[in-house]
Amino acid sequence: MNNGALKDIRVVEMGQLLAGPFCGQLLGDMGADVIKVEPPVTGDPMREWGQGAEKVQWEVIARNKRSVSANLRVAEGQALVKRLIAHADVLVENFKPGTLEKWGLGPDVLLAEFPHLIIARMSGYGQTGPYSDRAGFGGIGEAMGGWRYIVGEPDRPPSRMGVSIGDTLTATYGCMGVLAALHVKEKTGKGQVIDTALYESVLQVMEGLVPEYDRMGLIRERSGSILKGIAPSNVYSCSDGEFMIGANKDSLWKRLAVAMDREELGDDPRYATHLARGENQDELDALINDWTRTLTMDEVDALMIEHSIPAGRVYRAPDMLADPHFQAREAIIEVETERFGPLKMQSSFPKFSATPSSVRRPAPSVVGQHNAEVYGELLGLGADELAALTEKGVI
């Protein structure tokens, strides 16, 4: 049953790979009816993405969606999708700027006919500016937005995060924009365009990187597993694995010193204040590491809990599946998928007390799986019309 916060909202998702589809996933998890438009036959390349022999990433990003196919490169396909958009509250797209306009589906055309429509646009550099017509993927946005330069070890080239954070940040900001625009629409009845760029989405989470340079000429550098000047906050070696401890606050440091049976270090002028710990970060980390390596992860964990210090193991997927807290909060759920049967994946998030999000339908296994259902339901097309459109390669 759909009790989600957006259960009365219909979204048409036109886009491929990650940013647009992840925005669609977020909206779908919150209850929206998401109709995904895919190219006939080939579909979204995301169907073939992911690690391992079986490509299961699609099962997450395409959940709660219905798939229809339409060839947007031909006039008949464009007209068909335009009729579909007429029944939507939100259009999500992440094509290169100018593509919708080339297809006769630009915001000027759509908002003139459907003034209620909210159009969420995701691109590398945004819809305006001298770079707007350039191709842009998430990694490029991460580089331009400042993320890549500061990630990795100081003596090595810039590294990357193990997931496509630029795309998912852009999708999340796009989703946030949709929710705000829905609020405005409720008051005014009018839709609007939301312009989100990969590089600007990354820029938003760069904390003090720009003002630090503007004020002091300071350029943040790669610092490996630490944030420079924030100590102690690092991954330390235990006798049987790695353990994260975050005691980068005066009171927390004093508690950690007690847990280490080195209470005198809590008031040691080298470590007693935030600034002093930052100046002596390397030696402090070495001191803590010398202590943790004499203990098991369970022993350190027990001490951290006893002294109320933020800490924990560095999890991989097996650890998440075995953890009782993940289980109690249903952070990971099992979805009955069409291609792989029962499949564990992250649950919908955030959690709502009155209008819970949920995974109500598995990802569509076939491109255009819901053509008859959607085109019949919303546009009134019959079997003969659908067959003709299929024969011509329109759907």
Low-confidence stretches: none
Termini separation (Å)?
Answer: 30 Å
Q: In DSSP terms, counting alpha (H) and pi (I) runs of 4 or more, how many helices?
A: 18
What percentage of residues falls in helices of 4 or more residues?
A: 25-40%
Strand arrangement within the widest β-sheet reads 3-2-1-4-5-6
Number of β-strand runs = 11
Task: List the secondary-structure elements in sequence, H or E.
Answer: EHEHEHEHHEHHHEHHEEHHHHEHHEEHH
Q: What's the main sheet like?
A: 6 strands, parallel
Structural class: alpha/beta
What is the mean predicted local confidence, pLDDT? 96
Shape: elongated
Strand percentage lies at: 5-15%
The whole-angstrom Rg is 25 Å
Distinctive features:
395 residues, alpha/beta, 6-stranded parallel β-sheet, 18 helices, 15% strand
Q: What's the layout of helices and strands?
A:
Layout: E1 10-14, H1 19-29, E2 33-38, H2 57-61, E3 65-69, H3 75-85, E4 90-93, H4 99-102, H5 107-113, E5 118-123, H6 138-144, H7 147-150, H8 165-188, E6 193-197, H9 198-204, H10 209-216, E7 233-238, E8 241-246, H11 250-259, H12 274-279, H13 281-292, H14 297-306, E9 311-313, H15 317-322, H16 324-328, E10 332-337, E11 341-346, H17 371-379, H18 383-391
Helix pairs in contact: 1-8, 6-9, 8-9
